[in-house]
Amino acid sequence: MVTSPSSSSLVEIPAPLLSVEDLRVELPVDGVLHPAVDGVSFVLEAGRTLAVVGESGSGKTQLLRAILGLQPDGARVSGRVLSSGRDLSTLSDREWRAVRGREIGMVFQEPAAALDPVQTVGAQVVEAIRLHEPLSRAEARRRAVNVLAEVSFPDPERALGEYPHRLSGGLRQRACLAIALAAGPRVLLADEPTASLDATVAMQILELLDRLRRERGLAVLLITHDLGVVAKHCDRVLVLYAGRVVEEGGTAALLRAPAHPYTRGLLRSVPVLATAGRQRGERYEAIAGALEDLSARRRGGCAFAPRCPDRFEPCEASVPDLYPAGEGRSRCFLSREAAGRGA
Amino acid sequence: MRPAPARGVEPLLRAEGLAKRFSLVHGLLGARGEVLPALRGVTFEIARGQTLGLVGESGTGKTTAGRIVARLLRPDSGRILFDGTDWLALSGAALRQRRRELQVVFQDPQNSLNPRMRAGDQIAEPLRVQGLARGRALRERVGQLLADVGLGAETASRFPSDLSGGQRQRVAIARALATSPRLVVCDEPVSALDVSVGAQIVNLLLDLRERAGLSYLFISHDLAVVSRVADRIAVFYLGAIVEEGPAQAISSRPLHPYTFALVAAATEPDPSAPRRGALLAGELPSAVNPPAGCHFHPRCPIARPRCRQEAPALSEAAAGHRVSCFYPGEMG
Lengths: 343, 332
Hints:
Strand content of chain B: 15-25%
Largest sheet of chain A: 8 strands, mixed
Mean pLDDT of chain B: 91
Low-confidence stretches of chain B: none
Order of helices and strands of chain A: EEEHEEHEHHHHHEHEHEEHHHEEH
Strand content of chain A: 15-25%
Oligomer: heterodimer
Shape of chain A: globular
Mean pLDDT of chain A: 91
Distance between the termini of chain B: 26 Å
Structural class of chain A: alpha/beta
Radius of gyration of chain B: 21 Å
Number of strands of chain B: 12
Helix content of chain B: 25-40%
Structural class of chain B: alpha/beta
Largest interface: A-B, 48 and 51 residues
């Protein structure tokens, strides 16, 4: 008998809807290729949300683009992306268009930029449906109303005729979700979907995402910088630094006992309310320095070593592997030592 | 109503009844007559050496208030006393002379710094304009300011494009500090930065306050950040202050239901923290046609018939703690 480690009511064993294997994206800087994403692997399972946490330069945006088969000019991509077992790396442009929206839906940070300002919400949802299914306009329209109701538009019929600029930020993001889910993808990639929204509205959108994931059995990849959002809405976490996964694990264990010095520093940098335990004026235990630009990074040792309070000799010499740490894995020689002692 | 100033100590800044309306122009023809009241008569004080945080979601008026204090925008009505001076009446040479005492740090140093000017020249500019230093003394002062904000002397010759986001914000802070101001308006100073870099900048602002005896007007949508920095917090909603009081009380025992929702939305990276649902329905209504009665009532979980008809005044609910709600503290 296999039980789900999460508290969700799913009973079946989750199957990976999307697998990413050793994905590497090299970008040209002054004619030289530098790895922006360097050997990233993970799986997305039905009904689960995986968080990808990383700051500027971590490679999270390039990772997302590579999963969708979108590469900047001059980039070199290697590794594999599998959608329900099918290798996407060999698809033609035409085949890719059938995958985006149909198998993999996407929502982005700025709903205002993602929506077409001169088309009604209804026209955009209908278009997303008819791109993938040979439905009549009337049938597609009926389906569009259902999808808009599903993302909790207060008046879906009326929303069909609304233009994006007439909608609030929260409703625009709901419209984007409706478009993303219109053709029934099982995988949803969400890139900072609440970063441009006010806190009380962001909560509403995240709860909507949770409900859609449960009801549709979606596999969600949530790119976020907000560890509070991770704590509440994600099952597993990947922490990216300089293009590599530096730590991965189940949310609760990883946040409670982070193994990698970067994850620990990040957690201590998160603004939390100054209430009884934490006083006004108390300093953050901030991470020193900043991540170097892509072309200035050392590739020979641990990329975090220049900022790391715990660095020692091995960190300069070679890149650490992902070593077992608690229930997860950590790309740190300290975790190797800890694992060695435990064995 | 006016809060009584602490006995014998005049506040560094007192803003009284600030109001500002913007005319809206829609489309090519510009539908006339729509007026957005961005600020509906707000009153607040900043004590000497203390920090007042202005918090609220976008469109609530906090940035407008900051821009008025910084003399970047004229209010329609209201007055500001800055260190005893009628701040809004100053103009010309007198204003230029006094500006050095009140400086601004903006959200995005990418936009607030001149991309074609070296960092050192940008920091030197206010000193040069004010005639405060020149020649070798000027260079030494710039070097000292760079050191104060944690940057090396070599940064002086760099252009903004050569610097990281955090370094650019440090340069912007150094420039704001160049004239030794007494009050710095910080408008979302860490919102454009990564979490780890934002924490460094908050630490820097805290250090500088201690060292230079500064006061801040600290504006942010993020209650968690504000609560770390501010002595007192004013919560804005639809152009008005709905709650104002000691930072500790605001973040641990909020009285207004909107503040309560902001506290609940300040998510913590703690998997064992109780998971609360979204407390507020809907979004900020249009300020052009605000709801009748209490402006917050359509989103308020505890609204009653009275709230739909009458607007509560901002009044003292506890010592030094003002709130505009008929049923303060009921959501706790």
